[in-house]
Amino acid sequence: MNVHRWANAAQLARAFRRAQQASRRDDGTAVGLDPLMAWPMSLSIEPTTSCNLRCPECPSGLRSFTRPTGMLDPNRLRALLSGPDGIGRELIYLNLYFQGEPYLHTGMDELVSIGKENGLYVSTSTNAHHINPERAERIVQSGIDRLIISIDGADQAAYQAYRVGGKLEKVLAATRHILDAKRKSGRSRPHVVWQFLVVGTNEEQLPQMRRMASEWGVDEFVVKTAQLDDPHDGHPLLTRDPRLRRYDRDPSGRWQLRNPMHDRCWRMWQGAVVTWDGKVVPCCFDKDAQHAMGQAADGAEFRDIWRSAEYHRFRESVFSHRAGIEMCRNCTEGTEVWA
């Protein structure tokens, strides 16, 4: 990573610490934040909102978006990252994922290559239903650094309980294709991650999944707890083991997030999300882009949005009364999402 990127990241971190210190007076009342002069160090950019599965807690799966479905134009990504005003100069990390299944985008490998041309660490997350041997070779050749494969069960029954419409055999075959392509190419990348979304219907398979990951030779196995829109007694996706869920009952018996609602958010401060059609939203929990700060066709427009009065007001609201923002009330910032 070059000095320019390190300097921007350090400036972001210093500004975050100042914002924490200055956001409230001793009497608890809010004060204004200084304008954020640093640029983001990470972006999540959405290849598509389309998805082939129907997962029950996902707006893509439920087809519940109010925003349009479509595919990211590679030229939009190139304009955002490259050129004299491109935001790629300051970025370190590019996550080509927000909502939808990225490998439904036929130009996904081109999107990865654009990120790599700008010197970025590039990742994505996939349900792996569209990866055959030929595509696996193209994925490896694209230079992607991190490939997260969702695998939420050790057998078809457990897997399809959440990944509705999915086939475990396709996920396993895709894993084999990627690992084979890596070996044939002699490359160390992508770093292949099996991600296990632990829910009430599969939590008993966690030990078996850990063994499978070791046997298959993936680079990493992670356990992700589930975000639920309406946790309640009897919810089939709530785990029995409290260590494997994000929610507990409060003294009144109501289910709520385990983490305290601090008036700060590093995730929002250091990065942003750009939808397939260019909407700039402050956080990956804003799945339907209800808090869009503007629409960017290139890096110059993104920079204007990042430093806009509207974005500044949103940051101030996070640092003064985060609990007043609906999407923040089901956010994992400040709690364990990886078990």
How would you name the oligomeric state of the polypeptide chains in this document? single chain
Instruction: Work out the number of β strands.
Output: 11
Q: Name the helicity range.
A: 25-40%
Question: Radius of gyration, rounded?
Answer: 20 Å
Largest sheet: 9 strands, mixed
Strand content: 5-15%
Shape call: globular
- Biggest sheet, strands in spatial order? 6-5-4-3-2-1-9-10-11
Low-confidence stretches: none
The assigned structural class equals: alpha/beta
Q: Helices and strands, in N-to-C order? A: HEHHEHEHEHHEHEEEHEEEHH
Alpha-carbon distance between the two ends: 30 Å
Count helical runs: 11
Mean pLDDT: 92
Describe the structure in brief:
This protein is α/β, with parallel strands linked by helices and 339 residues long. The chain has helices at residues 3-22, 59-62, 74-81, 108-117, 133-142, 156-162, 168-185, 206-216, 266-270, 299-306, 309-321, and strands at residues 42-45, 93-95, 121-126, 146-150, 191-198, 220-225, 247-249, 255-257, 271-274, 279-281, 294-295.
Explain the overall architecture:
The protein is α/β, with parallel strands linked by helices and 339 residues long. The chain has helices spanning 3-22, 59-62, 74-81, 108-117, 133-142, 156-162, 168-185, 206-216, 266-270, 299-306, 309-321; strands at 42-45, 93-95, 121-126, 146-150, 191-198, 220-225, 247-249, 255-257, 271-274, 279-281, 294-295. It has eleven helices and eleven strands.
